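Field reference: sequence -> structure
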Amino acid sequence: MKIEVLNYIKSPNGPRLGFLDIKVIYSEGKYECFRGLLHFKKENRKWLNFPCIKRDDKYLPYYERFPEVKKEVLSEALIALNDYLSQNTLDSFRPTVVLEPRRLSDG
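Structure field:
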């Protein structure tokens, strides 16, 4: 498995540092892309989360994977992100636009 960082948007807000898109490359040319992962830092701890939706006062990931696979992908993605950030200067950041989903009845 190889992880490639496709894009990083610096967007500091509390413990959130930014958003990123990654490509997980498996053997035989198979791959998956994950967009909108969240990058966090609190004290000396850094981590990534899949994007979530709030439903019934719970946050549920848009994409759910077998826990061990999810942990492996996110751990490898964090290593790839550290490499990416060490090679790319991000002096400015693009503000993130958050769109609220519309209900069908809203037209």
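Note: Strands lie at 2-13, 16-25, 31-42, 45-49, 52-55, 58-61.
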